[in-house]
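Hi everyone, sorry if this is the wrong subforum. Our group has a chain we'd like a structural model of before ordering constructs, and none of us has done structure prediction before. Sequence below.
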Amino acid sequence: SITWDQRVQGLADRTLLERFLRQSGYAPPIKTFVLATRILPGVGQPAFVYFSYRTSGFVHSRRQFWPASMVKIWAAIHALITLHKYKLNSLTHIEFTDNYGEFKGPVIKLLRRLNNTSYDRLMRIAGRDNVNKEKFRLRFGLRHTILKIAYGKGSKLHVSPKIEFRRQWRRWRKFRRELHGWRRRRFRRYGTIRERRQWQRVRGCRGNCTTLFEMQDILRRVMLHEELPAVERFPLPVEEMRRLQRAIYRRRHKIWLSTGKVLGWKTRAYGKSGSSTGSSQLDNVFLRSPKGRFLVTLGTPWYREDPDAAPSMIEIEELGRHTLNALLKLPRHTPPIQPDAGRPITASIRSIPCHSLHYQITIQGKAMSQLKAWVGPRPISLQHKGKVFVGTFDFQKPGHHVIALQGWSKKRPVAYKAFGVNVPTVLSPPRCQSTSPRMHAQRPKTHSN
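Answer:
Right subforum, don't worry. Here is the predicted structure as tokens:
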């Protein structure tokens, strides 16, 4: 099986969005980053169709753009996970002192504000080493998301202060009925989280680094927590995720005007925007509208010559409008992406002799009237022969490729499967050189899944 990030990078379309923008007469500025996702009904869970402007949706932020405030949701999730380890939640009253002064109150206050001060405090609650723990990041496919520095002036994250908490709950107790009857009493529990120092060194990033896909995927897991399978969810209870969803609700964001004009003014947006002078304007939103659900993450340059940010705000609004129009109008032959689910599908592929990149695929599924297949974002033409579906296709180049299969019955998807194939680079044997100038295989190769 392949991981979620491998599925998305192997099946995401990188050409249709650029082609649509060109046909619309819109030329995006240099250093434009766009990753737009259409959410569709899948097999027992949502399915996602990804469109990237060229390769910008998967470009590492180092030397490309500054992620700014988009990373604050990731800090909030880790702070809640740390509290959950101590059997606390976002409503627990905590107290600690840092360089900003004394904080008293529940963590939900920090989640609702989510400014630079709140981000630094959430990082201290979580602990920088916990946020950058490689095993946890790779579990969710966040290979490039690293948070090292604070956003407040003169603030550092190498020390997490001692945190005192006061947890209270209510419990019914039965006393002597003739005297008191039923009564409810409050019980309080006090405790502390000791001071922690962060010593871990993480290579590959000097500041805060990520990609547009990873920021969008964090938001996807937050907003669709109850709809995703258990393996895809963050280790937090449903009530906690609902509070976080309400905390990141935004009435106004960077592309809110475009959202209202294209999707309607009843659209609700959740997420976090970001901006950095001399770097970029960024927006990362989950949109729930009468026309469907979408995930949009985009960025435009913010030049130092424009200190008032007005030209860059106009650019990101224009880019957002064209991106939302593309999500509504782009063709639907691109592959949906989701974890394997539904009825079993078996597939085997074999290379055709003397054609190293030309393969034949044979697919068998139970009780399916239609079956669709894709190699990367390109569809495969299939023919129904008896109990199997057969098709031929070309890998455009050697290397790792992803093949997706989706089975249909009675006009609804009932099965989904995706797997990876490594196509080797081979030299043509002498017996094939006279028949074709192309690269040829030494012998037929078969892959089964």
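For your construct planning: The two ends are 9 Å apart (CA to CA). The chain has a mean pLDDT of 89.
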